[in-house]
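About this split. The held-out portion is used to measure sequence recovery: a designer receives only the C-alpha cells and must propose an amino acid at every position. Recovery is the fraction of positions where the proposal matches the reference. Here is one held-out target exactly as it appears in the evaluation file.
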C-alpha cells in the first residue's frame, strides 16, 4: 500500500523597495530611485533564492507575494525568472496564489498581460481613494479616472484581483464614504482591503499632524465610519475575515492568511522578514547594502534568532486576533504545548464579561466591539 506523504507548506515573499514617489503615510521600506539595473536585481534575487534553498527544498509553496515598494515597476522577466528558479527546487500547490502589488498608472497597466504570462495570477492594486482631492492629499500620483481604468483593466486580464482603499481621512463624512464605497463595490469582484488611515512615526504625515497641519476624525466619527463599512460590506455579501480585509466566494488572500494564522513564510529582499521553523530571519534593510550582499556568496541576512515561547505567544495573539476566526487553541498547543501558563484566564474572562471577546472550545476571537479596540485588547493579553 502506498503511503501518502504530507509535505510541509511554505509561503514566499519578495520585496521590491522602489517607488516612483514616497507617499506621506507610508512607513514601509520604500525608496525613490529612477536608475535601477533590473538585470542586477534579477541576479540578486536568484542568487538569494539559491542560498536559501535548504529552507525551500522539499516544501510545497502555497503562495508567493511580490510586495514593496511598487513591484509592478519591475521588469516582468524578473518575476518569470524567480518563479522558474523556485520551481527547480520545490513544488507548487495546485491552487497556488501568486500576487503582485501594483499602482494604477497607465504605464504599469500596460504590463499586466506580461505579468500574467510571467506567472502572476492575482493582482493587488493600491487605489487608496476614488476622489481626486483625497488622492492628492494622500500623495498618490494617479487620478480617480486612472484608478477606475486600471481596475477595469485588471478585471479583464485577471480572474483574481483586489484593491485597497484608505478611510477615516481628514474631514471625511460617513455620507461621503458610503458613496465612495458604493462606487468601489461596483468595481470590485471578490476581495477588497479597507484600511483606516493611521499616523506612523517617521512619515511625512507624522510631522504634518504634529504641526497641526491637519486633524484626524475623532473616535466617534471613526467608529461610525468603521460600523458603516462593515454594514455595507455585509449587505454585498462580503465577509470581514480580517479587521481590514473583506472577501466573498472563498477569495480570501492565501498569502496574508499565512501571516495571520502564524504559518511559515520566507522573505527575500531589502528588509524582508521570515518566520521559519520557529526562528525569525531579518534581511539587510538598506537596498544598496542588500543588493551587494545578495550578489556575494553570503546570505543577505542581517540576523537570525530563535523565537522564545513568550515571543511566539505574543505574535500569535498579535496576528490571529485580527482574524474573524481569532486565535485557535490548536495553534497555541502546536507551538507552545502547555500554553495556559501564558494565557491569563482572568484577563480573558474580563474581556468576555465586557463583550470584547468570545471564547469557545476552538479558541477565542474579538467581538465587533473588540475589533474597534483591537490594539488595546492585544496589549491587555500579551505578556
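Reference sequence for scoring:
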Amino acid at each position: 500500500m502506498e503511503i501518502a506523504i504530507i509535505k510541509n507548506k511554505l509561503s514566499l515573499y519578495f520585496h521590491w523597495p522602489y517607488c516612483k514617489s514616497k507617499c506621506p503615510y507610508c512607513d514601509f521600506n520604500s525608496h525613490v530611485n529612477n536608475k535601477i539595473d533590473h538585470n542586477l536585481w534579477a541576479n540578486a534575487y536568484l542568487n538569494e533564492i539559491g542560498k536559501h534553498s535548504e529552507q525551500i527544498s522539499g516544501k510545497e509553496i502555497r503562495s508567493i507575494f511580490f510586495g514593496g515598494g511598487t513591484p509592478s515597476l519591475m521588469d516582468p522577466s524578473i518575476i518569470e525568472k524567480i518563479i522558474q528558479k523556485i520551481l527547480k527546487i520545490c513544488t507548487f500547490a495546485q491552487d497556488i496564489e501568486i500576487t503582485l502589488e501594483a499602482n494604477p498608472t497607465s504605464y504599469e497597466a500596460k504590463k499586466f498581460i506580461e505579468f500574467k504570462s510571467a506567472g502572476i495570477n492575482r493582482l493587488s492594486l493600491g487605489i487608496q481613494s476614488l476622489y481626486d482631492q483625497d488622492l492628492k492629499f494622500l500623495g498618490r500620483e494617479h487620478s480617480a479616472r486612472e484608478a477606475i481604468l486600471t481596475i477595469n483593466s485588471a478585471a479583464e486580464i485577471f480572474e483574481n484581483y483586489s484593491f485597497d482603499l484608505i478611510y477615516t481621512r481628514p474631514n471625511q463624512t460617513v455620507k461621503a464614504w458610503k458613496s465612495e464605497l458604493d462606487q468601489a463595490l461596483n468595481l470590485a469582484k471578490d476581495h477588497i482591503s479597507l484600511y483606516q488611515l493611521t499616523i506612523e512615526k517617521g512619515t511625512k504625515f507624522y510631522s504634518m499632524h504634529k504641526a497641526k497641519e491637519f486633524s484626524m476624525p475623532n473616535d466617534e466619527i471613526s467608529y461610525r465610519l468603521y460600523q458603516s463599512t462593515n454594514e455595507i460590506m455585509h449587505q454585498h455579501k462580503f465577509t470581514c475575515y480580517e479587521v481590514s480585509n473583506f472577501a466573498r466566494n472563498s477569495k480570501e488572500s492565501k498569502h496574508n492568511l499565512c501571516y495571520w494564522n502564524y504559518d511559515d513564510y520566507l522573505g527575500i529582499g531589502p528588509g524582508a522578514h521570515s518566520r521559519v521553523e520557529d526562528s525569525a530571519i531579518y534581511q539587510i534593510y538598506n537596498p544598496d547594502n542588500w543588493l551587494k550582499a545578495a550578489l556575494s556568496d553570503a546570505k543577505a541576512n542581517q540576523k537570525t534568532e530563535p523565537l522564545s515561547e513568550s515571543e511566539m505567544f505574543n505574535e500569535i495573539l498579535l496576528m490571529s486576533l485580527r482574524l474573524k476566526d481569532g486565535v485557535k487553541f490548536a495553534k497555541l498547543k502546536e507551538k507552545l504545548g502547555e500554553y495556559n501558563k501564558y494565557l491569563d484566564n482572568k484577563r480573558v474572562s474580563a474581556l468576555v464579561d465586557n463583550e470584547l471577546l468570545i471564547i469557545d472550545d476552538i479558541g477565542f476571537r474579538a467581538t465587533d466591539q473588540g475589533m474597534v479596540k483591537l490594539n488595546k485588547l492585544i496589549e491587555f493579553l500579551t505578556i
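Annotator remark: The longest helix spans residues 219-235.
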